[in-house]
What we know:
- The chain is of the alpha+beta class.
- 27% of the residues lie in helices and 13% in strands.
- The longest helix is centred in the N-terminal third of the chain and has 27 residues, at 75-101.
- The chain starts with 9 loop residues before the first helix and ends in a 31-residue tail after the last helix.
Amino acid sequence: xxxxxxxxxxxxxxxxxxxxxxxxxxxxxxxxxxxxxxxxxxxxxxxxxxxxxxxxxxxxxxxxxxxxxxxxxxxxxxxxxxxxxxxxxxxxxxxxxxxxxxxxxxxxxxxxxxxxxxxxxxxxxxxxxxxxxxxxxxxxxxxxxxxxxxxxxxxxxxxxxxxxxxxxxxxxxxxxxxxxxxxxxxxxxxxxxxxxxxxxxxxxxxxxxxxxxxxxxxxxxxxxxxxxxxxxxxxxxxxxxxxxxxxxxxxxxxxxxxxxxxxxxx
Length: 266
């Protein structure tokens, strides 16, 4: 991401890193200082040792896939969920190797790897890293809420010793909204807000209710095969509607469809 021997400022290098990661398919990229993350439960316990920064990477999920969900996840959602995880793992891998080529140790953490299925813990909480990296805030559904896409994102983390400018957490904007609480089919979401983050997940969620429905019922549905839901994600108003102004202005060309040459979409 840098050029050998080239002098570059901390700010310039950070922006280059983010631009390169975005070019590989990320929709959001942020940087967290590792020091506050040492309070998290990580596996192994020395996971963060030697690293100073955690790069949080997000990809958005298609809005329309959540409209296929009513009272349970759908096979389409399950496939897209898994596709997003594969994309994130590839982006994290490329990011880690790019840092390595610049001379910095780094470690990509798999996007969706549960190491403790009794307590549902991964190597590190991607949501906590993303919050500290300024990608969004912790919602009442205990998921990361981004201003752009709501919870319609998947996340991955790359730990690194590369010198990067750390981003700052953003303000919680859930306010008095209780749409996720009202939508939850097992009433797992308490609807309690937090200015910063929940010290324990039980403050926000009756976690066992959620986990039992996902693992005992939804994961065994035909075409699902994973403990996923999507109902509270669909309910979140952030990112539920696209901004029509973002559409390209497509004008009718002078050539007929038969005469027109193929034009790449991107």
